[in-house]
Protein 1
Amino acid sequence: MSRTRSLIELEHLSADEIAVFLKLARRMQSGQPKPLLRGKRIALLFYEASTRTRVSFEFAAKLLGTHTSVINATASSIEKGESLVDTGKTLQALGADCIVVRHPSSGAPHVLNRNLQVPIINAGDGMHEHPSQGLLDAYTILRHKKSLKGLRITMIGDIQHSRVVRSNVHLLSKFGAQIVLCGPPELLPEHAGALAPGVKVSRHIEEATRKADVVMMLRVQKERLAGLRLDANHYIAHYQLTPERLKLAKSDAIVMHPGPMVRGMEIQSEIADGPQSVIEEQVHNGVYVRMAILSICLGVQ
Ligand code: NCD
C-alpha cells in the first residue's frame, strides 16, 4: 500500500505520472477485476447532472469491492443549505475513504482537498477540469493509434465552457500532440491558443478537420452560457460534423464525443453511429480508467 492522493487536475501532472494511470487502466481491462479496495467506502458527491461519469465511477468502485454511496445535491442536506466543506466533513466522519465530486464551481474539489484528509477525485468542476474524462479519452485514442506524439487532434464546439477540453489539452500537449481548437468566437476566445504548447485556433471546421487523426466533438454547454444567445441554425451550418466535413480528415480518423451528445446539433447521427465513431467505446473504457484512478488515489495498485 502506497500513499493516498487526490486527483484534481491534469495540468500539473507530468507525462510520467499520467502514464501510470493509463498503464494501470490497461491492466484493469486485460484481467478479471480483483477486489483490491475491498471494504473501502467511496462517496460520490454530485452537485450537477451526470450519467456516464457517475455510473462508471460507481461500477468501477463496486468492481474493486468497495461500498459506494451516491449523494445528489437535490436529495440531501445540501438542499437545506449545508456548505460544501461541511458536507465533505460529514462524509469523512461517516467513514468515507475517498470522495468523488462533481460541482458547478471551478475549484470546488480544491476546496475539499484543502479542508479534508481523505483523497478527493474531481469528476468535473465548472469550466476548470474533468481529469477522468481526459484520461479515458487518451486511453481510447491509444487503443486506435500507436502514440499520441504528432497526432493532429481537433476539438470542435463550445471550447470556452468545456472542462473536458481543458483536461484533454493539458494531457495531450504533454505527450506532443498537435491540437486544433475550432468554434465560433463567442465559444472560443483567441487566447485559448495559449492554453498549452502546440495548440492552434481555427474558425473554420473544414480547415480544422483537414488531415485530422482524431475529431472530438463537444456539446454546447447551455447551462454555462450565462445569457449568451446562440443561433442554432448558424451553429449547425458552420460547426456541425457532417459526412462531407469528416471526409477531409485522414481516412483512419476516429470521431469522439465525451457525451451527452445532441444529435442534429454538433453531430449528425450518421457519424455518431458510423464506422469511425468510438463514442460508445469511450464510455466503456471509462470504467477501467476509473478503476485505475480509484486504486491509485487510494494507494492500492
Ligand atoms: C461532460 C461534462 O460533464 O463536462 N460530460 C461528461 O462528463 N462526459 C461534457 C458535457 O457535459 O457536455
Protein 2
Amino acid sequence: MLVLGVETSCDDTAAAVLLDGRAVLANLVSSQDAVHGPYGGVVPELASRQHVQHILPLLDGALHKAGVGPKDLDGIAVTRGPGLVGSLLVGLCVVKGISYRWEIPYVGVNHLEAHVLAIFLEQAVGFPYLALLVSGGHTLLYQVHGFGRYQYLGGTRDDAAGEAYDKVAKMMSLGYPGGKVIDQLARQGDPRAIAFPRARIKRGSYDFSFSGLKTAVWRYLKDRKDGWESERADIAASFQEAVVDMLVTPTLRAAREVGGHRIVLAGGVAANSRLRERMKAEAEARKLEVHFPAPPLCTDNGAMVALAGHYWLTQGRRDDYRLNADADLTL
Ligand code: KG4
Ligand code: ZN
C-alpha cells in the first residue's frame, strides 16, 4: 500500500510517501523557523499563510522524490488535530481536494498518535510500551497496548517541555526554536552549576509541570545585576538538567508501577541529546528497553502521519468530506 502523508498542524509543512507502512520513499519538510524567529514563537496567522504558499509545491516534490504519480497512491493521510486550527485547515482542505480530484480515499489522523507510532518507521517494538511524547505543544505519557489502543497516564499541568525550552531561549535571546540551541549550548556548561527547582508532583500521579522552572530561570536572569552573559552555558545546562530530571523520573516510576519494560520517546524534545543519554543510561540500569526515533522523525514530519494513516486505511477506515479539523483532539 502506497500512502501520502500530509502534516500542517503547527509551523512545519510536511509531506511524505510511505510504502507498505515501512519504506519511507520521500519525507520533505518546509520549515517556517525563519518567519517566526523574530517573534520568539509561532504566530498562528503567519503559519497558516506559509502553509498555503508551500503545500502544493511540497506535495509535488514528495511525489517526485518518491518517483511515483497520483495514480500510484492507495490512500492519503492528513493530520486533523490537535494543533492550530488555521494550520490544520490548510492541510485538511488541500487533501480533501486532491482526494476528490484523484479519486483516492483519505483519512484524518491524530497528530499525537502519529508521534507515538513514529518509532515503527525505523524498528519493530513489542507491545505494551510506555510512550513519552514531548514536543512544543505536548508533554504526555501513555501506555500503548497496541495500534489504536492508548491508555493516558499523565500530562503537563502547565507548559509543555518544548514550550519551556522555547521560552527560556527567548529570555536569553538565543533565537527560535530554542530546544536545539539550548541543547548545543548546554554541552559547554555544568548541569550542576545552578540548583533550579524541580516540580514536586504527588505520588500516584504521572503529571509534569514546567512553569515553576521557567519562572525560576527568569528570576535568576533578572537578579544578576552585573549580567549573566558569562554564565550562559551553565544556565542552559542547569535548566536542561532540571527538565530532563522532571521527564525521566515520572517515566521510570510509571515503568515500575504500571508495568512493562519498554520506553519509547517521541516528539521534538525527544531529539534532545541529554534526554536521550540520561533516559538510556537510567532505564538500562533498571533492565528496561529504550527506543527513540532519529531526530527528523521526532520533530513534526509527514512520514509518521502516513504511518498512522496506513494503519487506519488497512483497518478499512475511509473519511468523508464532512470531516473537520479539531484543534483540541485528544488521544
Ligand atoms: O514535535 P515538534 O516538532 O512540534 C510540535 O508538535 O510541537 O516539537 C517542536 C519542539 C520545540 O519546542 C523545539 O524547541 C523542541 O521541540 N526541540 C528540542 C530539540 N529539538 C527540537 N528541544 C530540546 N532539545 C532539542 N534538541
Ligand atoms: Zn508534533
